[in-house]
Amino acid sequence: MFRRRSDPEPATQPAAPVERVTSVLGADTAWHGRLTGSGGVRIEGAFEGEIVLQGLLVIGDKGRVTCENVRAHTVVVAGNLKGNITAQKVEIRSTGRVWGDVTTMAFATEEGSFLRGKITMDEQIPSEEEA
């Protein structure tokens, strides 16, 4: 009556990267320099420099980022970004403003968002080592 089911083992697939924020640049913080790493970063303050992440980048409502090139796995813009974006996924929220070109595999916007630049959709985004 109560037997263990002998279901076949599910196929093992590589785990998708966990897209979550692990570090926050606070609203009253201004930072100049280079931001690199493999975790998720949320910017609520001001950042100027270079961003290269192997994870998630979130620019919050009050966030202001100025970078020639932003490179991350996923970029979500709810604040202001002046610079080009290269990412596998890009989302511009209704409060988001982007001045720059976007190169991505997946792109989404909400009504009210702003983009001044061009969007290039590619089938694959090369990693930082390949670029």
Describe the structure.
- The chain is mostly beta strands.
- Helix content is 0%, strand content 53%.
- The chain contains no helices and eleven strands.
- The chain has strands at 23-25, 30-37, 41-43, 46-53, 56-59, 64-77, 80-92, 97-99, 102-109, 114-116, 119-121.
- Strands 1, 2, 3, 4, 5, 6, 7, 8, 9, 10 and 11 form an eleven-stranded parallel beta sheet that branches.
- It is globular.
Task: Kindly list the characteristics that best describe this protein.
eleven-stranded parallel sheet, 131 residues, 53% strand, mainly beta
Quick summary of this structure?
The protein is mostly beta strands and 131 residues long.
Count of helical segments? 0
| First-residue to last-residue Cα separation | 60 Å
Please give the share of residues in helix: under 10%
The total strand number stands at 11
- What Rg do the Cα atoms give? 18 Å
Summarize the main sheet.
11 strands, parallel
> What structural category do the secondary elements indicate?
mainly beta
Mean pLDDT, to the nearest integer, reads 86
Q: What are the segments in which pLDDT stays under 50 over at least 5 consecutive residues? A: 12-16
Q: Work out the strand percent.
A: over 45%
Query: What string gives the helices and strands in order?
Result: EEEEEEEEEEE
**What overall geometry do the principal axes of the alpha carbons give?**
globular
